[in-house]
Amino acid sequence: MCNDLFYGNQLRNGIATGQRTPLVDPLGPLTFVNVDNSTERYHGSSWYNDGEITTMMAAVKQLIRLGIPPDQIGVISLCKIMMMSK
Q1: How distant, in Å, are the alpha carbons of 3, 14, 39 from that of 60?
Q2: Half-sphere exposure of 34 (CA within 13 A, CB side)
Q3: For residue 71, which of 11, 24, 30, 48 sits 20 to 30 Å off, Cα-Cα?
Q4: Which residues pair with 43 in a beta bridge?
């Protein structure tokens, strides 16, 4: 669905599921993180959450400290303003 909506069906799967190795054990190649005790706020036409932003930035910085190249790290956010806020 996202490929269709955001990328005009231009994304192509280049590898098989079994070839997707974790960047860091025990995390999988795709990880969801629940952030408790944080508050969503409305800004302009989008929602954002400072707790989620802080958690996401800490995770990305830790991956970089562990030697993961930044171009191998992807962050998906459904809230556009959160990606622009830090």
Answers
A1: 24, 24, 21
A2: 2
A3: 48
A4: 46
pLDDT given at position 57: 92
Report the first-to-last Cα separation within the chain, whole angstroms.
Answer: 27
Strand partners, 42: 47
Looking at the chain, the whole-number percentage of residues with pLDDT higher than 90 is 12
Entry pTM:
0.63
- The residues, ordered by sequence, that sit 6+ positions from 20 with a Cβ below 8 Å of its Cβ are 29
As given in the structure block, the two tokens for residue 11 are: 């994304």
The β-bridge partners of 41 are 48
> Which three-class secondary structure state does DSSP give residue 49?
strand
Query: What is the spatial distance between Cα 56 and Cα 38, in angstroms, rounded to a whole number?
Result: 13
Rounded to whole angstroms, the Cα distance separating 86 from 49 reads 12
How many residues are there in the chain?
A: 86
Q: Which helix (H) or strand (E) holds 47?
A: strand 46-49
